[in-house]
Write a structure and sequence with these properties.
By secondary structure, the protein is mainly alpha-helical. The chain has eight helices and two strands. Strands 1-2 form a two-stranded antiparallel ribbon. The protein is elongated.
Length: about 180
């Protein structure tokens, strides 16, 4: 996080049932640096006892902070009654306090090695960017042998055009 702040970037993260999202906001000339830091997080996170213990304290504090909130209790009850206590969706997103306390460096590394890899990663870049250059950086940083295809590039370029030129969108669809 310190390195992101040194770049003048805002950085945060959250976890849901199926994803962990890391997001940054920065000036466009910092994009390559941000991508490099994210790839480093993906490929070489420092997992040692000091960091694991520190993160366990943060997660336990967050879990305890939710305990007294009625909407959290309702959500937990609904998820537990629907999915049971032994299945992913039936458990709290951050885990149970007893499970977090039992977490070890070895278990953390196993989880990281299983899930934090390029094929499980989606990178979304929004802003006034050079689309082709950004895709080239991502392909190079992640070491993709087969770069994004021209068809995918055209689709991304169209998406980029629509995002930054909303007057081109003539209809709006609302989903309720």
């Amino acid at each position: 996080m310190r390195l992101f702040h040194l770049l003048g970037a805002e950085s945060n993260a959250y976890t849901s049932y199926d994803v962990t999202v890391f997001h940054e906001i920065a000036e466009r000339d910092k994009l390559l640096h941000l991508l490099t830091l994210e790839v480093d997080r993906l490929n070489g996170a420092l997992i040692d006892s000091e960091h694991v213990e520190s993160e366990k304290d943060v997660v336990i504090s967050e879990l305890m902070g939710h305990e007294g909130k009625p909407n959290y209790q309702l959500h937990r009850s609904l998820m537990l009654s629907t999915f049971g206590s032994e299945r992913g969706y039936g458990l709290p997103i951050g885990g149970r306090i007893e499970d977090v306390k039992a977490l070890t460096v070895n278990l953390t590394r196993q989880h990281y090695e299983k899930f934090y890899k390029p094929e499980n990663t989606a990178i979304v870049v929004v802003g006034d960017i050079d689309t082709k250059q950004t895709i080239d950086w991502v392909n190079n940083l992640l070491g993709f042998k087969q770069p994004v295809s021209q068809n995918q590039l055209q689709h991304l370029a169209l998406w980029h055009l629509l995002v930054f030129n909303p007057e081109l969108i003539t209809t709006r669809t609302n989903v309720l």
